[in-house]
Write a structure and sequence with these properties.
The protein is α/β, with parallel strands linked by helices and 364 residues long. Strands 1, 2, 3, 4, 5, 6, 7, 8, 9 and 10 form a ten-stranded mixed β-sheet that branches. β1, α2 and β2 form a beta-alpha-beta unit. The radius of gyration is 23 Å and the shape is globular. The chain starts with a helix and ends with a helix.
Length: 364
């Protein structure tokens, strides 16, 4: 009898402990992002204020956004979703949504309305490019260059095709280790008209044309995977010029005071934002929804611009962006005279095939 009572007591304690553990898990939120200055802007604008209001919540960061599609596919196959909220670019969100790996949502239910009473759907407008996508910022991928490495007698590079001009601008380049943007820039600098780039890139011949152009600088390229790589390479003087996100260049120029200049020509506009993985436990999903309602309001989206030069994705936030940051935004008129508009749907459809071809080319 004594053994039975002890067993029952132990079982009861275990049950209580299990409930407590479950409750604790519901207050633990894993957020996936990109690291560096961008993740820090999210921490300052969204996470720290949220944790002040919810001190029982524990946020865990995972810097795997560049591998989000592959990892969510693997998690889904294993039936073990360990992420709660994932920051991805728009084309990846479209793919994840199409594959049923990201949760569809109602903007009016999930997102905060504008502080002027504007509905979330109207305030975000066309930037909600997928039924699963919660847009956060407008950014661009562009080039930085070392101002002290510009050859004597040459002007500072201001044209995208300077990237391919090793004679005028010798030195290493840093390019992202994926086809997106690189293929478009290569075709532009091989004579393809801007409005024909994606039609050409949709063909095997166009893909080979882009890779052939990239071949002309391949031996002088350092390939990067993380957004913080190019700023570090520039700061260390290991490359003359390199592509990265405009906010990362803002950080190395304005905050670190490095001899780096910004080249805005043919900057590629893109969106970054959240997806919620499909299949979360109810307690975890409720926590994520609560955070998203907080993090998507007018003030919070504008607050992020205090820490990095990305434009907020909702219209009501734009007037709240600090004046000293507006000149560093990709959307500023002085910076957006020759932009290249990223085609989300193209890359959602062609990404896997072109990726395989690009990685094969890299290995040659």
């Amino acid at each position: 009898m004594k053994f039975t009572k002890t067993l029952l007591a132990t079982t009861a304690l275990s049950a209580v402990a299990g409930v407590a553990a479950a409750q604790e898990m519901s207050n633990e939120m894993t957020i996936v992002s990109w690291g560096g200055a961008y993740q820090n802007s999210q921490l300052k604008a969204y996470v720290e204020p949220y944790l002040e209001m919810n001190p029982d919540v524990n946020v865990i960061w995972d810097e795997s956004s560049n591998e989000a599609v592959a990892k969510l596919r693997a998690m889904n196959e294993a039936g073990n979703i360990t992420w709660d909220l994932v920051d991805v670019v728009a084309s990846d969100a479209i793919r994840l949504c199409d594959e049923g790996l990201a949760m569809e949502y109602d903007p009016e239910e999930l997102l905060a309305e504008g502080d002027d009473g504007t509905s979330a759907e109207d305030d975000f407008g066309d930037l909600i490019v997928s039924d699963c996508y919660i847009p956060q910022i407008v950014y661009s991928t562009t080039f930085g260059y070392r101002t002290d490495m510009v050859p004597e007698g040459a002007e500072a590079p201001s044209d995208i095709c300077s990237v391919f001009d090793l004679e005028t601008y010798p030195g290493k380049r840093a390019l992202e280790k994926r086809p997106i943007n690189n293929m478009e820039w290569a075709l532009l600098c091989d004579g393809v008209a801007k409005d024909e780039v994606y039609d050409v890139l949709a063909t095997p011949e166009g893909q080979e044309q882009a890779l052939a152009k990239l071949d002309t600088i391949k031996d002088d390229v350092i390939w990067w995977s993380a957004g913080a790589d190019t700023p570090q390479l520039l700061a260390d003087g290991e490359v003359f010029m390199g592509s990265t996100y405009n906010g990362r260049l803002y950080s190395v120029i304005e905050e670190q005071d490095q001899p780096v200049g910004m080249m805005w020509d043919a900057q590629v506009f893109d969106l970054d934002g959240w997806i919620i993985p499909e299949g979360l436990e109810e307690a975890d999903l409720n926590r994520v929804k609560d955070f998203i309602k907080f993090a998507t309001d007018t003030k919070r989206l504008a607050d992020q611009a205090n820490y990095i030069s990305y434009g907020p994705a909702r219209a009501s936030s734009a007037p709240l962006v600090p004046e000293n940051m507006k000149q560093h935004m990709p959307t500023d008129p002085a910076n957006s005279q020759n932009t290249f508009l990223y085609n989300y749907e193209f890359w959602a459809d062609y990404r896997d095939d072109i990726d395989a071809k690009f990685q094969s080319w890299l290995a040659q």
